[in-house]
Input
Amino acid sequence: MNEIVKACPTHELELRFIPEGISKAGNRYNAFYGCPEKLCKYSENIPEKKGHFLSMQGEHRRAKEIAYGGSANRAIEIGAKSKAEFEEMFNYFMEHWQVWYVKNVLNEED
Ligand SMILES: [Zn+2]
Output
């Protein structure tokens, strides 16, 4: 997927992706591209559906990193004695997590 990189016309800095979230006032906001310059208010909107997809991708990556570490620790805790045993246990936990994640996290949103 080739993302067109946009820049702030004032600072000529590459815009940063800001994932969707909830403002301090408690309002939901869509993902958008913003200037990395702190006081600059320049931003470009992302269509809601695409913004949501990109935000979820970021979340998924973070969640996967955590699951990776957790699965490796669990395999060691249980007492994997060889590389093959470790791989087997690790894969088991990762698959388990994947199913759980799709069912409980991804399906919640729609
Ligand atoms: Zn700017």
Q: What stands out?
A: Residues 8, 10-11, 13, 35, 37, 40, 42 surround zinc ion (CB under 6 Å). The longest strand covers residues 16-18.
